[in-house]
TrEMBL record:
Coiled-coil residue spans: none
SUPFAM superfamilies to which the protein is assigned, alphabetical: MetI-like
Family: Belongs to the binding-protein-dependent transport system permease family. MalFG subfamily.
Species: Vreelandella lionensis
Taxonomic lineage: Bacteria, Pseudomonadati, Pseudomonadota, Gammaproteobacteria, Oceanospirillales
Transmembrane segments: 34-55, 98-119, 131-150, 162-185, 206-232, 263-284
Gene3D superfamilies: MetI-like
ABC transmembrane type-1 domain location: 94-284
Compartment(s) where it occurs, according to its Swiss-Prot or TrEMBL record: Cell membrane
Keyword line: Cell membrane, Membrane, Transmembrane, Transmembrane helix, Transport
Protein name: Carbohydrate ABC transporter permease
Topology in membrane: Multi-pass membrane protein
Domain of life: Bacteria
Length: 297
């Protein structure tokens, strides 16, 4: 009876569809395309609007920003950007941020690659428990580790250095990198390793010349996530630095003074903070597109 009901419903739908004319079907498809494009356009508009407004504010003076709302600067000025590039305390904030982010990405990827390979190729006692323990580091907020890191780095003389922030971020980025890379490495057949050994490849030569190029999409995705965490993380970077290695996020708080907030400079600093992320996405865009379809992403 159930199969008969399904067959009857199918015949009913086929009959209804056959009654529709080609013009009606084209009209229905056009409405569907219009609805999809409208929703996509609305989504893009809501995403781009804050960025556009930030750029708009960065090209205005404080008096114009605090005055009437304008969709375009009436008196466009680049003084906010000039003030950032001519003030060492401002542009050094970007340099400091990029330095410890680059150090963190380099250290993390060098540690995570062999560790992820071990988890994907070998089985040992407690391997699953160790893998789970690494992931639990991601569940703890950075504030939990502030005091231990501060006391440790101050004792060994690493306080207010770029390497201090880079090592602190490794606590969160290394487990994330291992988790992502292990998924990509597990998708590579083990027969490739055995064939390389038969052909006389040593492990370092095989790993660098054969294996790493095969998972370059996974490495690109991993570097993207590592950059995102280190670039936007502020709590550890702010606590472990004082003057010489302060990140741009900390320096942006200086715009708030007794006379008020320098909105124009703050907006210009925000625009410049977005630029490195756009460049990273641009250079690894092909790897990200492939990587999101594979591995653990």
């Amino acid at each position: 009876m159930y199969r008969l009901d399904n067959a009857q419903q199918g015949e009913k739908y086929n009959t209804i569809f056959s009654r529709t004319t080609p013009a009606q079907r084209r009209k229905r498809n056009a409405r569907s395309r219009f609805r999809s494009r409208f929703l996509l356009g609305l989504y893009l508009f809501l995403m781009i609007l804050p960025i556009y407004w930030l750029i708009n504010m960065s090209l205005q003076t404080n008096s114009e920003i605090l005055g009437s709302m304008t969709l375009w600067p009436k008196n466009m000025t680049f003084d906010n950007y000039i003030g950032i590039f001519t003030n060492s305390s401002w542009y050094m904030g970007y340099v400091n941020s990029m330095l410890y982010v680059a150090l963190n990405m380099l250290i993390t990827i060098c540690v995570a690659l062999p560790a992820a390979y071990a988890f994907s190729r070998y089985r040992f006692i407690g391997d699953k428990h160790l893998f789970f323990w690494l992931l639990t580091n991601l569940m703890a907020p950075p504030a939990v580790f502030l005091l231990p890191y501060f006391q440790l780095y101050y004792s060994v003389g690493l306080f207010d250095t770029h390497i201090a922030v880079a090592l602190a971020h490794c606590l969160f980025n290394i487990p994330l990198a291992i988790w992502i890379l292990e998924g990509f490495m597990s998708s590579v057949p083990k027969e490739i390793d055995e064939t390389a050994y038969i052909d006389g490849y040593s492990f370092p030569r095989f790993f660098i010349k054969i294996f790493i190029p095969m998972i370059r999409s996974g490495i690109g995705v991993t570097l993207f996530f590592l950059f995102m965490f280190s670039w936007v993380e502020l709590l550890l970077a702010r606590t472990l630095t004082a003057t010489d290695a302060q990140p741009i996020g900390m320096i942006m708080t200086r715009t708030s003074t007794a006379s008020g907030i320098d909105w124009g400079t703050l907006a210009a600093a925000g625009v410049l903070t977005i630029v490195p992320g756009i460049l990273v996405v641009y250079f690894v865009r092909n790897h990200i597109a492939k990587g999101f379809a594979l591995g653990r992403t």
